[in-house]
Design a protein that fits this description.
It contains 31 helices and 16 strands. By secondary structure, the chain is of the alpha+beta class. The protein folds into four domains: 103 residues, Winged helix-like DNA-binding domain superfamily/Winged helix DNA-binding domain (Arc Repressor Mutant, subunit A, Orthogonal Bundle); 145 residues, GntR ligand-binding domain-like (Four Helix Bundle (Hemerythrin (Met), subunit A)), CATH 1.20.120; 186 residues, Periplasmic binding protein-like II (D-Maltodextrin-Binding Protein, domain 2); 208 residues, D-Maltodextrin-Binding Protein, domain 2 (3-Layer(aba) Sandwich), CATH 3.40.190.10. The strands form five sheets. Strands 5, 6, 7, 10, 13, 14, 15 and 16 form an eight-stranded mixed beta sheet that branches. Strands 1-2 form a two-stranded antiparallel sheet. Strands 3-4 form a two-stranded antiparallel sheet. It is globular, with a radius of gyration of 28 Å.
Length: 679
């Protein structure tokens, strides 16, 4: 947590903020620094600002002219390539050192990280993927900081910050597979292959930079220019050495910069004030509107209690990595908007991550069970402990085209699996040559194909694992029933597109354009999006609760919750904040700002959640909510929605390839158990 800055920390504050502006591209290469404007922006006088600029000039982030003007240093493709050459050597060495000893939990994290950005790869979302790329490389180098090479390897952090500040030089689809190869080599424990995989990965980018240099193209972005000054190097006791076109002084000076930067960070941390509660949330809907609404609620809380709260945003693109790091002992707020309680609690154990709040439950939340949907409470109760208040829901509902149903003589949505088959057959349309013009059914939306299987498995009476997360429980009749239903819809009844499980499949455009009649499990966001973006479809679609399977009508559900992090010095203040946020009127404001369903029946009965038929339905669906959480750190790896993921492979083999079901389930059970054992 941070405190108001004192005069002793102003220079460090300016230094860090300016360096981050440069590394983040907010101050661009060659830009003149207007000190008056920067002083206002940073809220300081020019004295600490000038000191910070002098430090950054010594580290070659900034260039000073003879007239005393300051400019952001320029760095061309050749110098960028040199930095990448250093990265290749040092990160290759990192992988060599890690391969024989890397722990399973680190492999799981890296695979989960890559799985989390697979949609960004497919959608060429370079901003999201860049964050994951930085995290991938930084995470690996963090694992070797205790090696005797010590500070030389630590220098990688600053080198990487510089070399990646420009953005991505290659498409995500190229580098994603290379990251997987590096993880595979590390998991295999092969130091030679791991080192070569990392070096080849980085040098493919170097080749592009060299081509740009040869072509005389400008630098792709900003990297500070490290000047070679033999006199200054000798004065500092650093030998100047060039090898292969790389000035090795850069490496040594960068290591020094890391040490100086770390010292500044420690000083700033030690001076941080302890009187403000630090509260993190993700962002929902319109970011500015969300931030404004949350901070307005915080202002009301502060006025009522006198407790100061500082709100920070965690981008969704980095939320998974952020909370996984928190659960492994990384920097944490006092309290936060979180998710996947079961997994993050299992990872953090009794040391890090989410903190049980049992002792505060009766005093602050005496009517918990009456106030919240039972399905939502599944996401804040784990192993008999209470962790906070579920404030938002993510419920899936059935959605169908009412206009097509009326044309086919169908009165209302299907109520059972058998009626899904019957209606889908009636709604599937083929031309005179047998080509499908409209599919009758889709299992679910495009968010995560593995999430399509879960509700059918639950509706058949199945559970994925035991309550303690130790034993896989998928080799059973419920799994056979669910997979048989899904496979028969595709091949026997021919009402589901055989390409459903392939990359790039998205049912929403098909639904909107009249090429798809029903979707079994659709996010509540579809209601918002159809209302907002497709007003011409008004009256032509509707949502409904999930049709019943053999055992129940369970719907896929997730919930975000407000909870406290272990290590906080402000536990009771956080509980008071959470209680304030959980009041009906405040929960309604949060739901309106976020565009997500509330976890409280009283809020869902409000006018806001009753003014559209689909809103009423998602409220009803919450009665059948089944948490998507599972009490095992390995769950994200088990449920990876891509080839190689255990449940994805099971679905693809049985549903699409129609391979032997018993053998496929037995193999998936064995693989899943192995993951649970390793984690």
């Amino acid at each position: 947590m941070r405190l108001p800055l004192t005069s002793e920390t102003l220079e460090d504050h300016c230094y860090r903020e300016l360096r981050q502006m440069i590394l983040g591209g907010h101050l661009v290469s060659g830009e003149k620094l207007v000190q008056e404007d920067l002083a206002v922006r940073l809220g300081v006088s020019r004295t600490p600002l000038r000191s910070a600029i002098a430090r950054l000039e010594r580290e070659n982030f900034i260039k000073l002219t003879t007239r005393g003007e300051a400019f952001v240093a320029e760095f061309g493709p050749r110098q960028i390539a040199d930095v990448f050459e250093m990265r290749a050597v040092l990160e290759g060495l990192t992988c060599r050192l890690l391969a024989p000893t890397i722990e399973r939990k680190h492999i799981l994290y890296l695979r989960s990280l890559m799985a989390s950005v697979k949609p960004a790869v497919e959608g060429d979302d370079r901003d999201v993927y860049r964050d994951a790329d930085v995290e991938f490389h930084t995470y690996l180098t963090n694992l070797v900081t205790d090696h005797p090479l010590g500070r030389m390897l630590e220098s990688l952090h600053l080198i990487m910050a510089m070399s990646l500040a420009q953005g991505l030089l290659r498409a995500p689809e190229e580098t994603f597979g290379e990251h997987i190869q590096i993880i595979d080599a590390l998991e295999a424990g092969d130091p030679d292959v791991a080192e070569r995989a990392m070096i080849d990965h980085i040098r493919r980018t170097i080749a592009i930079l060299r081509q740009r240099t040869d072509a005389g193209e400008p630098a792709p972005g900003l990297i500070p220019h490290f000047k070679t000054d033999p006199g200054r190097a000798e004065d500092a006791g650093i030998a100047t050495m060039t090898k292969g076109g790389i000035d090795m002084t850069i490496l040594r000076r960068t290591a020094l910069a890391v040490v100086l930067g770390s010292t500044a960070a420690i000083a700033a941390g030690s001076a941080t004030a302890q009187d403000a509660v630090e509260f993190w949330t993700m962002t929902y809907g319109d970011q500015l509107n969300w931030k404004g609404e949350v901070e307005a609620l915080i202002d009301g809380f502060t006025e009522e209690t006198g407790i100061e709260v500082r709100h920070e945003i965690v981008p969704w693109g980095s939320a998974f990595q952020t909370y996984l790091t928190v659960s492994q002992g990384g920097a944490a707020p006092d309290c936060a908007d979180m998710y996947w309680l079961h997994s993050f609690s299992a990872i953090g154990g009794d040391q890090h991550g989410p903190m049980p709040l049992n002792e505060y439950r009766d005093e602050y939340f005496p009517t918990l069970e009456e106030d919240f949907y039972a399905g939502a409470l599944q996401d804040v109760l784990w192993q008999d402990d209470f962790y906070g208040i579920p404030w938002r829901g993510d419920i899936r509902a059935f959605i169908y085209r009412t206009d097509f149903a009326e044309e086919a003589g169908i009165d209302g949505p299907p109520q059972t699996w058998d009626e899904i088959v019957e209606d889908a057959k009636a709604l599937t349309v083929r031309d005179e040559n047998g080509n499908v013009e409209r599919w009758g059914f889709a299992y679910g939306t495009a968010t995560n194909v593995v999430s399509w299987l879960l509700p059918y498995y639950w509706q058949a009476g199945g559970t994925m694992m035991t309550d303690d997360g130790q034993t896989a429980t998928i080799d059973n009749e419920a799994m056979r029933t669910a997979l048989t239903f899904m496979r028969d819809l595709m091949w026997e009844h021919q009402v589901v597109n055989p390409d459903s499980l392939e990359a790039g499949y998205d049912p929403q455009p098909l639904f909107v354009n009249g090429q798809l009649a029903m979707v079994g499990s659709a996010e509540q966001a579809w209601g918002v999006e159809l209302d907002r973006d497709y007003p011409q479809l008004e009256g032509q679609w509707a949502m409904a609760t999930s049709p019943a399977g053999p055992e129940n009508s369970d719907s896929f559900s997730g919930a975000g919750y407000f909870g406290v992090l272990r290590g906080s010095d402000h536990v009771e203040e956080c509980v008071q904040l959470i209680e304030y946020m959980s009041r009906d009127e405040n929960m309604l404001r949060l739901a309106q700002a976020a565009g997500t369903v509330s976890t409280k029946p009283e809020v869902m009965a409000s006018e806001f959640w009753s003014d559209r038929p689909w809103k009423i339905v998602v409220g009803e669906a919450l009665q059948d909510a089944h948490t998507s959480q599972h009490p095992a750190p390995a769950w994200s790896a088990i449920a990876t929605p891509e080839p190689g993921g255990i449940l994805y492979d099971l679905m693809y083999d049985v549903i699409v390839l129609q391979e032997d079901m018993d053998a496929s389930i037995a193999e998936a059970q064995e693989r899943m158990q192995a993951e649970l054992d390793r984690s």
